[in-house]
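chain below, 290 aa
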Amino acid sequence: MSTTFTIDTSTSRATPTPAPMKRLTVPAIQRRKVAGRTAEPLVMLTAYTVRMAQLLDPHCDILLVGDSLGQVVYGLPSTLPVTVDMMVAHGAAVVRGSYHAVVVVDMPFGSYEASPAQAFANASRILAETGCAAVKLEGGEAMAPTIRFLRDRGIPVMAHIGLTPQAINVLGGYGARGRGQEEHAKIMADAVAVAGAGAFAMVLEGVIEPIAIEVARTSDVPVIGIGASAQCDGQVLVAEDMLGLFERTPKFVKRFDDMAGRITDAVQRYADEVRLRRFPGPDQIYPIKP
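prediction:
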């Protein structure tokens, strides 16, 4: 499965056109886990723009429009200032740029915690205005009633437990969770609660590996790890992190490229050619037609 492109001659931009394919669905993601095991792990990356969605879509089962866009795109200090309007704008862009992956959009801080009714109002808006397949929200047992409320009203929910960045002021930092017995018990209880409430999958972030393996093996729904274990049912990373667009990345990120270095080199060559008046050259200008 892949996405093909046509070139808009007026803008020289690649415009996606769908190749013959059928977009994955939430039930298809759920069915990947059979008897407590996912034979082929789920591939999930973040995407915030049309172009990145075009590039990632053929290779991913799930594209997450994460509230991490607050830091990655807008340079905010955390995810807390991200708004529903921001998530809707970027979610719609990613849906437009993809034809294969299930698109999941994060519900930002303050958009779902007050009540299930508040969560439904914002989640239904996100689905209606973006065309995404599901929303993701953070929290375990405390959010189980909200997950069930949304699921029962036709909104698929991906849960997020373990290290939950929206709760950073309570957690006190981004350190791994589960090092004590109390945290271990809480993570396990959260996993049971969100799966029991009807979450179709869960992100398990920043937990020590033995607990991640235990959650993945005992949960009936796919468990997607980030800073957890390769034994999870899938993995997710911020695409810009794994592509090497930032100088510093978290411990759990493997940099699969050095895009920042490659961009810097390309821009340096461009700047040199401009200053030496070598660009634009004969191939980039419009001569008088004979």
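The chain has a mean pLDDT of 92. The longest helix spans residues 259-275.
thats it, cya
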